[in-house]
Amino acid sequence: MKLNAKSDAQERVVSPEDVRVGKDVIEILTSGMYVSPLSIYREYVQNSADSIDQSRGAGDSGAGRVAVSIDHGARSVAIRDDGVGIPEDKVADVLLAVGGSRKRGTAARGFRGVGRLSGLAYCRQIEFVTKVKGANRVARVTWDCRKLKELVATTAGADDLRMVMAGAVSITTESAAASDPSFFEVRMSDVARLRSDLLLNEHLIGEYLGQVAPVPFSSDFSFGAQIDTELKKRQKLSRLDLSVNGRVITRPHRDELLADSVDKSSRVKEIEFFELADVDGDVGAIGWLAHHDYVRSLPANLGVRGLRARVGDLQVGESNLFEDSYKETRFNSWTIGEIHMLDRRIVPNARRDNFEANHHYSNVLVQVGPVAAKISQRCRQASISRTALQVVENLTRQIEDRLKQQKPRIERAELSKLKAAAVRATAKAGKIEDEQDRKRSVTRLAKVQKKLSALTPRRGPATVAVSEVATLIAKFVTNREQREKLVMEIKRLVD
């Protein structure tokens, strides 16, 4: 139903003064924004990476260090980078802007201007300390998080976001040597105690950053250089020298995947690359898959399972981001691989746990389906191959054990059964994927068959084991009912 405006209706221009942003927004942008508290480390490292990119772009090739320092006694954390820093006269404009980042429209990873607020919910005080190259002053922005929470919670006083922030934030400067290098540092004091003391647990923090941050591959992953070379053909890789309490952080990928598992060892064997087109037909994303033995789903604590996504070499979402692209979602946990988004129209959402829903991202998802299907097929084929290898080994061992036994000569029926088993094993060997395993099995079977051919069975009627006859019937008689009747009739005659 269309509503017609009354003849006396008047239009009023809305001015900026009419718009009020309430103080509760601060809670939405802090504790209400991210699923895991560890996300605050990703946000601060992301900002460090953007600052370091600026520094490198200005000619400082030595920039690239980010140090996370944790003091358990003081319950404090410092995250310091050697990027360009922020000029003293720009500190208020940059660090007090909420959702107003100057990085939007640039190649920077972050552009919404809310990530630096993420730590406010988890400490008593947070400081942003910075200096630019050649400056003789250090600027410090201090947030009193306890006071901020009190101002947000109170029903009295101002409820405008700007007024609340003004009552909880202070800016100071102090002298410094102009020769001191540029830096930016986040300092969190009196950090909250969470389960497993998560925000001060350097082991968990290191594992998390190893998965999500733009850090290099480990030297224990021999395919890292190959992946980097291929990625550099399409995008600039800007890796960080990231450390947590002095421990250098690298990606968690390794050649050996299940080294501690005796019965199901597994290792990466090869890397497969693929491209996904954007809606214009250009390359919208590049991906890689690390093919391994596919013996089972990979343990979560390896930090590598699942087909994952990255933008600017920073992970978006978790290991299950593309899980729905698999017809059988379990095979995502067998997968090791990444998709690096190149199309700038594919944008991470504010929480970076997924991408903004648009037809550009939908176009990628459509193409991920066939990739997931190929991986699933590899998983199934690997299972068939392992089963075939086990069957071949068991049958061959049974024949070898019988030939070693010091019993009277083998009767014709038993010899026929052993020969048939060797034939079945040879047929199964063709389904073994690994070339070395297949050759070893075939060679072993050939020796067994040669020994069987040289045997002279005990005199007696030429007989064939009923089980072997049943196997032949099952192979050539397709009608199940007829097959079962025929086998039953043969057994009746034998009995």
Q: Say what oligomer this is.
A: single chain
What structural class do you assign from the helix and strand content? alpha+beta
* Proportion of strand residues: 15-25%
Count of helices? 12
Bulk shape: elongated
**How is the largest sheet built, in terms of strand order?**
5-4-3-6-2-1-7-8
Largest sheet: 8 strands, mixed
Structure commentary:
This protein has 12 helices and 13 strands. The protein is elongated and about 105 Å long. The mean pLDDT is 87. With 495 residues, the chain is α+β, with helices and mostly antiparallel strands. Helix 8 runs parallel beside helix 10. The N and C termini lie far apart (87 Å). A hairpin with a 5-residue loop joins strand 9 and strand 10. The longest helix has 46 residues. The chain has an 8-stranded mixed β-sheet. A 5-stranded mixed β-sheet has the order 9-10-13-11-12, sandwiched between helices.
Secondary-structure blueprint:
Layout: H1 25-28, H2 39-57, E1 65-71, E2 76-81, H3 91-95, E3 125-131, E4 137-144, H4 145-153, H5 161-168, E5 169-175, E6 183-189, H6 202-212, H7 224-232, E7 241-244, E8 247-248, E9 270-277, E10 283-291, E11 306-311, E12 314-316, E13 336-341, H8 359-404, H9 412-429, H10 435-454, H11 466-476, H12 480-494
Parallel strand pairs: 1-7, 11-13
Antiparallel strand pairs: 1-2, 2-6, 3-4, 3-6, 4-5, 7-8, 9-10, 10-13, 11-12
Helix pairs in contact: 4-5, 8-9, 8-10, 9-10, 11-12
